[in-house]
């Protein structure tokens, strides 16, 4: 029974709970006891007799390591068994006999598991600080594997910096460092009692963690005698994660924790196609009522300031530039309005016409089918309303469009939004990085992506990058920008791998009414925008206490706008997307 069988969870969001077992020759019996007469989903089982050593093979000429593959059907092997690779294996042992035997056995066990169609095998933790040969063997194996996953067991331990002053001393242990060394040696291959500090285990949320192995020692006993986990362990599991089987109460409790997690809200499950303004895209925008509520509040406040109640009979000219299919223009205001809806997309203009007709607004609303940068308006507006924002604020060229539109805003007129700011923060995002890397070209490493950030560790608070204010009548006005930033990662995090930046925006619509996705101030229930991800060509490892220095440019040419970015500390990375060679937005 998957842990996630509850209202609000989709099957794909289910989590499964397995039980680690001792070696048992009789696999059907093992399954019967742990799965069918109790409620675990799978067993983690040794596939080879632990007493097996390759030298036995030479002596006896027999394979003593396992029962026949026929004891289970292929679907049982693949859905109910995760293979446990022999824990005695030590591929970095100084003892050559042990090292060679380990290599032979590892390959043999994986080959056997593959033959059984097992979905995944758990590899034992590296034995010491060095895991070079282990990583080399696993990398070799990964190259030949098709469907089977390898899970590397890593204990969750980190000694406090306070406990050990010298991080290079042998008593300093940070299992993330071990994992990091291992995955670097495997070229970032995409398969891959007390707890450390929240910041340090937070790093794991950006890593490809497939299974959490909860040791029975981690459980406490509550007042009623049932197993429970400390708050810290609960937080780790619920993350962003039994004849009556003796472990059944433990399973029930982990299931209870999983069910107590909030289901992912409906709006987080679909992703808009930001660059493709077809009917479906408009529908996605329009489904986000929160955005329109914020705009409505901003417009009402601006109208009140512009036309006090005692002058309510005066006509206010309101222009909605980039009107889309009309939702921004469709707000009830109670003021005398003359509205212009300017829209460059002729297909959206069709909808605008039918909306105006349907609502009987012919006397109030004039539809202008034109690019706002080139429209020759016959009068000026009091209020200019636009929503041309991208996930990074200015990345859909709102500054350039509004430069054109402010020609027809009165000198004392109001722009909604009045300003917007972009933000970045460094993230560990191993999965995203591997997705980008899988394209095997430079273009993908120099492209910014609009993505829902699922598996990321946010390593430091966001910092502001670029701000644009409207209207802007200054004579030296330029939309080019440059910013240098330094990020400090909390000391108790330990070392961390940065795969790139998460980008967000916040827009000031009018006075205190804002709209944004920057995590610390995000507008609740807003899903029109996902984050932006700016990858690095090479991930950067930062050590505690050494800052990450980054540079960001917004560049403008005659026909395009683009970003360039680079890192200069702790080590330098090449400037990404120089001259907009890989990624730009056309003017
Ligand atoms: C993000 S959509 C917002 C639509 C609508 N205002 C809403 O909030 O649902 C931006 C709209 O601006 C239009 N647009 C973008 N640049 C424009 C320009 N230079 N002139 C006129 N319309 C433009 C696009 O076609 C699109 O309909």
Automatic annotation (TrEMBL):
Q: Member of which family?
A: Belongs to the class I-like SAM-binding methyltransferase superfamily.
Tell me the ranges covered by the PRMT5 oligomerisation domain, including all copies: 419-585
Q: Which organism is it from?
A: Populus trichocarpa (Western balsam poplar)
- Catalytic site positions: 387 (proton donor/acceptor), 396 (proton donor/acceptor)
A single GO cellular-component term from the record reads: nucleus
Record keyword Oxidoreductase present: no
Alphabetical UniProt keywords: Methyltransferase, S-adenosyl-L-methionine, Transferase
Q: Which residues form the PRMT5 arginine-N-methyltransferase domain?
A: 269-416
Could you state a single Gene Ontology molecular function term?
Answer: protein-arginine N-methyltransferase activity
This protein's record includes keyword Methyltransferase: yes
| The protein's name in its UniProt record | Protein arginine N-methyltransferase
Q: Which residues does UniProt call coiled coil?
A: none
- Domain annotation PRMT5 TIM barrel: ranges: 40-238
**Which InterPro entries does UniProt cross-reference here?**
Arg_MeTrfase, Arg_MeTrfase_PRMT5, PRMT5, PRMT5_C, PRMT5_TIM, SAM-dependent_MTases_sf
Its BP terms in the Gene Ontology are:
methylation; regulation of DNA-templated transcription
Which residues does the annotation say bind S-adenosyl-L-methionine? 282, 291-292, 343, 371-372
**Gene3D superfamilies from the entry?**
Divalent-metal-dependent TIM barrel enzymes, Hnrnp arginine n-methyltransferase1, Vaccinia Virus protein VP39
Site positions for Critical for specifying symmetric addition of methyl groups, renumbered to this chain? 285
Question: Pfam families of this UniProt entry?
Answer: PRMT5, PRMT5_C, PRMT5_TIM
Q: Which domain of life is it from?
A: Eukaryota
């Amino acid at each position: 029974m998957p842990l996630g069988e509850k209202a609000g969870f989709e099957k794909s969001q289910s989590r499964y709970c397995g039980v680690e077992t001792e070696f048992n020759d009789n696999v059907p019996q093992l399954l019967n006891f742990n799965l069918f007469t109790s409620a675990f989903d799978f067993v983690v089982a040794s596939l080879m007799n632990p007493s097996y050593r390759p030298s036995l093979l030479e002596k006896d000429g027999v394979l003593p390591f396992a029962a026949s593959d026929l004891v289970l059907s292929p679907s049982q092997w693949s859905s109910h068994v995760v293979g446990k690779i022999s824990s005695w294996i030590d591929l970095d042992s100084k003892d050559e006999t042990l090292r060679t035997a380990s290599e032979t056995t590892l390959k043999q066990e994986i080959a056997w598991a593959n033959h059984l169609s097992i979905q995944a095998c758990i590899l034992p933790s590296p034995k010491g600080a060095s895991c070079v040969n282990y990583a080399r063997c696993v990398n070799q194996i990964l190259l030949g594997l098709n469907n089977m996953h390898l899970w590397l067991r890593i204990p969750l331990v980190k000694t406090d910096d306070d406990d050990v002053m010298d991080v290079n001393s042998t008593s300093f242990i940070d299992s993330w460092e071990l994992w990091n060394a291992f995955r670097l040696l495997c070229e970032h291959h995409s398969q891959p009692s007390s707890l450390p500090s929240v910041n340090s285990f937070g790093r794991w949320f950006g890593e490809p963690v497939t299974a959490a192995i909860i040791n029975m020692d981690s459980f406490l006993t509550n007042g009623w005698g049932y197993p429970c986990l400390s708050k810290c362990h609960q937080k780790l599991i619920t993350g962003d994660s039994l004849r009556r089987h003796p472990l059944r109460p433990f399973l029930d409790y982990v299931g209870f924790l999983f069910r107590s997690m909030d289901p992912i809200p409906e709006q987080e499950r679909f992703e808009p196609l930001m660059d493709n303004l077809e009917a479906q895209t408009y529908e996605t925008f329009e489904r986000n009522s929160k955005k329109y509520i914020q705009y409505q509040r901003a417009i009402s406040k601006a109208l009140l300031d512009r036309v006090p109640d005692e002058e309510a009979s005066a006509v206010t000219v309101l222009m909605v530039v980039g009107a889309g299919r009309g939702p921004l223009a469709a707000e009830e205001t109670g003021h005398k309005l003359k509205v212009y809806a300017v829209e460059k997309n002729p297909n959206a203009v069709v909808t605008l016409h039918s909306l105006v007709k349907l609502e009987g607004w012919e006397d109030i609303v004039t539809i202008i089918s034109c690019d706002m940068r080139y429209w020759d308006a016959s009068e000026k507006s009091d209020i200019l309303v636009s929503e041309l924002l991208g996930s990074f604020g200015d990345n859909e060229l709102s500054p350039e469009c509004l430069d054109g539109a402010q020609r027809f805003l009165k000198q004392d007129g109001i722009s909604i939004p009045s300003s917007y700011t972009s933000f970045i923060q460094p993230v560990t995002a191993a999965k995203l990085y591997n997705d980008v890397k899988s394209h095997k070209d430079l273009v993908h490493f120099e492209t910014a992506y609009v993505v829902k950030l699922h598996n990321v560790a946010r390593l430091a608070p966001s910092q502001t990058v670029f701000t644009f204010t409207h209207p802007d009548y200054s004579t030296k006005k330029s939309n080019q920008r440059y910013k240098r930033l330094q990020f400090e990662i909390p000391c108790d995090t330990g070392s961390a791998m940065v795969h790139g930046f998460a980008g967000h925006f916040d827009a000031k619509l009018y006075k205190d009414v804002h709209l944004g996705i920057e995590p610390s101030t995000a507008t609740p229930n807003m899903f029109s925008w996902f984050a932006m991800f700016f990858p690095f060509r090479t991930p950067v490892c930062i050590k505690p206490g050494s800052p990450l220095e980054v540079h960001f440019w917004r560049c403008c040419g005659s026909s395009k706008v683009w970003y360039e970015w680079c890192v200069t500390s702790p080590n330098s990375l090449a400037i990404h997307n120089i001259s907009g060679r890989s990624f730009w937005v056309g003017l």
